[in-house]
Design brief:
This protein is α+β, with helices and mostly antiparallel strands and about 80 residues long. About 15% of the residues lie in helices and about 45% in strands. Strand 1 and strand 2 form a beta hairpin. The termini are far apart.
Length: about 80
């Protein structure tokens, strides 16, 4: 099924202290959170993850407009710690 252009999208990014990481875009906020959580579970201490609400740029360019942070997480010594807004 095609993505409706007005439906919300969520980007997720995980970056370590060395700048390495992973990311993606989905139309499911819960899936974005699960992707960040899974990536952080195997990441070293101090790695950070974020989920943002985004939308496609109306300019026709392949880019997303940031519409704000939904959740942020940090890999602690033993677990993933989440904060949500």
């Amino acid at each position: 099924m095609a993505h409706h252009p007005c439906a919300p999208l969520y980007s997720w990014d995980v970056k370590g202290r060395d700048g390495a990481g992973a990311g993606g875009v989905t139309d499911d906020c819960g899936e974005a959170v699960r992707q960040v959580d899974a990536a952080l579970r195997d990441a070293p201490f101090g790695t950070r993850g974020v989920v943002r609400k985004v939308e496609l740029s109306p300019s026709g360019q392949t880019m997303y407009l940031d519409r704000g942070e939904v959740a942020r997480a940090l890999k602690g010594p033993d677990t993933v710690v989440w904060a949500a807004w």
